[in-house]
Amino acid sequence: MKLVSIPDAEVVHLLTSRGTFGQTPSRIYLGRETAGHQAKALLRITRTLLGRKRCPTVIVDTEEVLRGPFKSSARVAGILGFGKLGRDHFHLLDDQMPLRWDKLSSFLEKHRDSRIFFLGSTFMIWQHIVLAARDDGRQFDVMDAVLIHGGGWKKLVDQAVGPQDFAPALTKRFGIQTVRNDYGMVEPVGSIHS
User: Fold this and answer.
1) Whole-model pTM above 0.90?
2) Of the candidates 81, 60, 80, 66, which has an alpha carbon nearest to the alpha carbon of residue 179?
3) Which residue in 46, 66, 23 sits closest to 189, CA to CA?
4) Which of 76, 159, 160, 163 to pair with 170, CA 20 to 30 A apart?
C-alpha cells in the first residue's frame, strides 16, 4: 500500500528499506518540508558531537554505492545526510571493497590537527575496518575522532557482535573514543543514540 500525504509532484525523495528477512521493503516518501525538518534535527544533534565546524570525513564505503542500485537506500541516505556535515570526504573503500590503508594514513596525517569524522553502516565498519585492521595488524591513533554508524546489526548476529563489542574494538584499533549509533530504520532517518 502506498502511504503518502502529499501530491506526487511534491515528493522530493523516496527512501526504501532493505526488506530484511523477506519482508516487503518500506517506501518512505519525503516532501521538501519534511526533508528540511530532518536535516535541521540531524544538524542540531550532530553538532553536540562534532562541534560547529565541519570535520574532515572518512566514509567507510565506496563512491560507487552512491551511484549504484543502493542509491535510494537508508545506507546511502545516511551517507548523504551525515556527509553534508563534513568536508574533504575520503571514501575508505575502492569499488572492489579493499581498504585503501596508505591513503587513509595520508588523509589522517593531512588532518592531524583536526577532529576526524568517520561514518558508515555498522556492518561495513565492522567488516571493513575492525576485522580488516585486525587481520592486517593495523593500528591507528585517532583520538580526536567521532564515529557515527547505523544499520547492519542483523548482518552481525551470526558473528555474535553487539554494541558491547563494537565501540571497544574501534577504540582498541583506532583510538576512537566517541562512537554513536544512528538508529538505522529508513522511517526515522537521523535519530542518533549511544
Assistant:
1) no
2) 60
3) 46
4) 76
What are the angstrom distances between the C-alpha of 92 and each of 100, 106, 112, 190?
6, 12, 17, 22
Q: In the beta sheet, which residues pair with residue 30?
A: 13
Q: What parts of the chain have a pLDDT lower than 50?
A: 190, 193-194
- Say how many CA atoms lie within 13 Å of 185 toward its Cβ: 7
Question: Cell 554494541 identifies what position?
Answer: 163
Give the model's pLDDT for residue 186: 55
Q: 127 vs 83, 123, 169, 171, CA distance in Å? A: 21, 6, 12, 15
Domains in the chain: boundaries: 42-193
pLDDT on residue 171:
92
* pLDDT at position 20: 56
pLDDT, residue 73, reads 67
Query: Within a 10 A sphere around the Cβ of 59, how many other Cβ atoms?
Result: 23
What is the per-residue pLDDT for 193?
46
- Render the burial of 89-100: b for 16+ CB within 10 Å, e for the rest: ebbbbeeeeebe
Multiple choice CATH, 42-193, 3.40.50, 3.30.390, 3.10.620, 1.10.150: 3.40.50
Q: What are the angstrom distances between the C-alpha of 165 and each of 70, 101, 121, 179, 180?
A: 28, 23, 16, 12, 13
Q: How far apart are CA 74 and CA 82, in angstroms?
A: 12
